[in-house]
Specification:
8 helices, elongated, three-stranded antiparallel β-sheet, 2 domains
Length: 140
């Protein structure tokens, strides 16, 4: 169903999560839009707890700040100069070690020079909905 592909950003693992919940919840073998809408929150919560949350926790506090700066730096792919600005660094060199560590951890990648993006879709949306730079700064 197109709605599942759209909601999952076409990412295979996310489609599988929808498939699992639709299998468990749907009343018939024909999946309707109402079925997808009925499981959307369940899938979103499951991905937040079991997929995005653990990925975010892989990062150190400063790396988490970098991930949140990305989510608040406009649209993907994100310009590294803009991320440095949102992060609060004077220039890109001030955050390059955090960017490199996140690349090594497989959380972000560089599609071209001067750009960065998350390795999985919908991570920025998860971060914006569940975390904030202000809250993270207060915790540190």
């Amino acid at each position: 169903m197109r709605l599942v592909v759209q909601d999952s950003a076409g990412y295979p693992y996310f489609i599988q999560e929808y498939g699992l919940e639709l299998w468990n919840q749907a009343e018939s073998s024909t999946i309707a839009t109402a079925d997808v809408e009925a499981v959307r929150e369940i899938v979103t919560d499951s991905l937040a707890r079991n997929y995005f949350g653990p990925r975010f926790q892989l990062a150190t506090d400063t790396e988490q700040r970098y991930l949140l700066a990305m989510a608040n730096a406009g649209r993907a792919p994100y310009r590294t100069a803009e991320i440095a600005y949102v992060f609060g660094a004077r220039d890109q060199r001030g955050v390059s070690m955090h960017r490199d560590a996140l690349i090594q951890k497989g959380l972000i990648y560089s599609p071209r020079r001067g750009q960065i993006d998350y390795t999985v879709p919908l991570f920025a949306e998860y971060l914006r909905e569940n975390h904030s730079l202000e809250t993270l700064d207060q915790e540190l």
